[in-house]
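Hi P.,

Sorry for the delay on this. The queue was packed all week, but I finally got your sequence through. Input first:
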Amino acid sequence: MQSRQKIRLHGTPEREPRRRKDFLRCALFLRLLALDVDDAADAGAADPGSPHLAMPTRQAAARTYPTITRAEANAWRDLHRQLAKTRTLQDAKNLAAQPAPPHAKRFYAHLRSFVRTLKSPRRGTRSELYVYGKLRLRFANDQPVV
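Then the structure:
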């Protein structure tokens, strides 16, 4: 005796209506999107040279850290190498007392502030914030408790 249900080669009987609904939903969305583009073109809302987007593009978030030039990056790399060799706060103070190279004025100012206060610079690069965070942990034992 054969079952009443027809055998389908593609998909199960209960999944077929869902696919149809998804297809209709997608077709409706595309139709609405086309209407949205046509309405904007009729109204003259979009510039003729720029494509109209159904969703506005995502704006880049404002950076919380400054961008630096290649020369500044090289200067910071050199300073970072020297800071990695320091073992005590006095070593860092001796490094901060050196005259700053022309492209590293800001980094040496941050270093001088750090050796005085043991606080990271407010507007430092991500690398600076990371390095000074590590140095603070290293030098914490050197400082007498006030």
